[in-house]
Amino acid sequence: VGMLLTSYMGTQAQAIGYKRDYSGLLGRADRLVLMMIVPIVQHIFLIYNIQLPYLNLLSWVLVYFAVMGNLTAIQRFYSTLIWLRNDFKKVKPKLALNGRSVFLFPSPIKELAEAAHEVGAYLIYDAAHVLGLIGGKQFQDPLREGADVMNGSTHKTLPGPQGGMVLSDHKGDTDEDKSFLRKLNFGIFPGVTSSYHLHHVAAKAIAYAEHLEFGEAYAKQTINNAQHFAQALHERGFKVFGEKLGFTKSHQILVEIGPGKGKEASKT
């Protein structure tokens, strides 16, 4: 796996895929990107900071069965994958983005990658919120499952300093692969960075070394804490999403508190 560490935030690491010039993964004439939308937990950065003439915003059904929490919803989920593959063929995007701010369960990356690659699109996995769980082998393995790029933050579930990273499993053993990696590299430098921010690099190295030693236990306990917290809230009458699926397989939970009740809940 190749890694770029020069970005100093997750969204900057993510931006390499969306630059519409001669660096990054999109060319000047490329127009179509498939992603989720903000109301179903897409990161707001993607909607308001990607300067593309047209965005096809697909509501990927990736948390839906978790929200519904029943077998019927799981069946709908898989039928949605069939619909999604057909939609890939219809719109022929250049990029497919799997990322969100609320990440309860692993995504069907194998199926999404197959759909993307059938039409020549790249699949980018935004691991900002779950990078430490992935590194701790407790979530999923996006690059091995077919994603072309995984980007993320180094300061969330991966408990390191403020920063970002970009990873790819492409080997560079073909001309196409070499071109891909060159675009990826140029997308970071000089695309969106001009310095390595060396004061971050040593701290990142220490954080990664710690994660190699303790990451699996850390990630496992993080998920365990979230599941127990969700169960405790459920037992106290809160409507926690995904009950029949164990509420979550990450560090996050979703609680329905009603329209406009967030401020009220924050005071309890």
Automatic annotation (TrEMBL):
SUPFAM superfamilies: PLP-dependent transferases. GO terms for molecular function: glycine hydroxymethyltransferase activity; pyridoxal phosphate binding. Keywords: Membrane, Pyridoxal phosphate, Transmembrane, Transmembrane helix. The chain crosses the membrane at residues 32-51, 57-84. GO terms for biological process: glycine biosynthetic process from serine; tetrahydrofolate metabolic process. Pfam families: SHMT. InterPro entries: CDP-OH_PTrfase_TM_dom, PyrdxlP-dep_Trfase, PyrdxlP-dep_Trfase_major, PyrdxlP-dep_Trfase_small, Ser_HO-MeTrfase-like, SHMT-like_dom. Residues 83-258 form the Serine hydroxymethyltransferase-like domain. Its cofactor is pyridoxal 5'-phosphate. One of its GO terms (cellular component) is cytoplasm. The keyword Transmembrane helix applies. This is Serine hydroxymethyltransferase-like domain-containing protein. It comes from marine sediment metagenome.
